[in-house]
Design a protein that fits this description.
The protein has helices at about 15-25, 40-50, 65-75, 80-85, 110-120, 165-170, 175-185, 190-200, 205-210, 215-224; strands at about 30-35, 55-60, 90-100, 105, 135, 150-160. By secondary structure, the protein is an alpha+beta fold. Strands 1-2 form a two-stranded parallel sheet. A two-stranded antiparallel ribbon has the order 3-6. It has a two-stranded antiparallel ribbon with strand order 4-5.
Length: about 220
């Protein structure tokens, strides 16, 4: 691709993410994509690059977008550097899309009932839902190899690091406080975004719970 330079790391010869990133910075690039921030040295160099005017895109292994803040602290970054360098956080999961050939309407109201149980269990926020619900369920046909699904669709959660969030990071705020701050800017969790897509008929509640980590049996236990 024109204008793109890709470098493969090789730990066997000592060419790590950190060393590669140092070499890249000498070329004064506009945008830097680091495959993964996995150690403190890489995290520090990436943050320094962001602070000197480069757009740095990377991945961090966490269970949620907000958990990336704690992960960066674990890697050794000071809160002031995280607050100054990070502009946004996003988490993504892929759920199976319902087969358009055989997906059937959920006439028994199982989807709406599960949504209410999850809300009462505190796994999702109560929210005003617009538009008519289109809950559907998987059945299976030749087109989808009798699985009821074909293809994938992404569910997301995105956090913008605004001034309020930046202040919370500087104050070493716990995860519960960071979540409250994110909620005030319209933040939705992975499971909430997935359930909205299930309500629209794109996927199923069962598929969202399978991928996003909340099992139906767990919600029953919490509710009881």
């Amino acid at each position: 691709m024109d204008g793109v330079v890709q470098i493969q790391t090789k730990a066997d010869i000592g060419y790590t993410f950190a060393k590669g990133l140092r070499a890249i910075l000498r070329q004064d690039p506009d945008i830097i994509m680091v495959g993964e921030i996995r150690d403190g040295e890489t995290a520090t160099i990436a943050a320094q690059a962001a602070l000197t005017g480069h757009l740095v895109l990377s991945t961090v292994h966490t269970n949620s977008s907000l958990a990336a803040i704690a992960r960066l602290e674990d890697l050794g970054l000071e809160p002031y550097m995280i607050a100054a360098a990070v502009r946004g956080l996003a988490a993504q999961r892929l759920v199976r899309r319902l087969c358009p050939k055989c997906a059937a309407p959920d006439t028994e109201g199982e989807g709406e009932a599960m949504l209410k149980r999850l809300s009462r269990a505190g796994l999702i926020m109560d929210q005003e839902l617009e538009g008519k619900a289109n809950w559907r369920k998987a059945t299976g046909c030749e087109h989808c190899a009798n699985t009821g699904y074909t293809g994938r669709i992404a569910v997301f959660e995105v956090v913008a690091i605004n001034d309020e969030m930046r202040d919370a990071i500087l104050d070493h705020a716990p995860m519960s406080t960071l979540l409250e701050v994110a909620r005030r800017q319209g933040f939705q969790t992975l499971i909430e975004d997935g359930l909205l897509k299930a309500r629209q008929g794109t996927t199923t509640v069962e598929e969202v719970l399978r991928v996003c980590g909340a099992e139906p049996s767990q919600t029953e236990t919490v509710e009881a």
